[in-house]
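ok so I'm stuck.
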Amino acid sequence: MFWPFLSFVCLLLITAPAMAQRATEAVAVSSAVTVEPEFVYDDHAQRDPFLPLVTAGGAVVTYDTSFAVAEMTLEGIVSDGQGGVAIINGTVIEQGKPFGLYMVQKIERDRVILVKDGQISELRLKKEE
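replied:
not stuck anymore, here's the structure
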């Protein structure tokens, strides 16, 4: 009975330094692993293609913030000369209110002036021919 126990102790004493070295190497390798930064999708002022277009209940989702000025269509203006409302892409907007990422600075008789990050953009009504 004594010999198996003594053999186990001897084996433990012989292999312990090698096992300790391997554990130290494993810690060194795991501490050398770098964490990559989280990926952030750059939408380039377009709708994120990974966002759903329809909810689980079947309602159509609209993303007002995804419109670039080039994608906006000024469909109509109702004005009393001191402001009014305009329809852009089917959405009624008011002067002084936000529209997506833009602020509606002014609604005139035939145009709407939008501001985003200090940059002024203008949408004009198209004349019927």
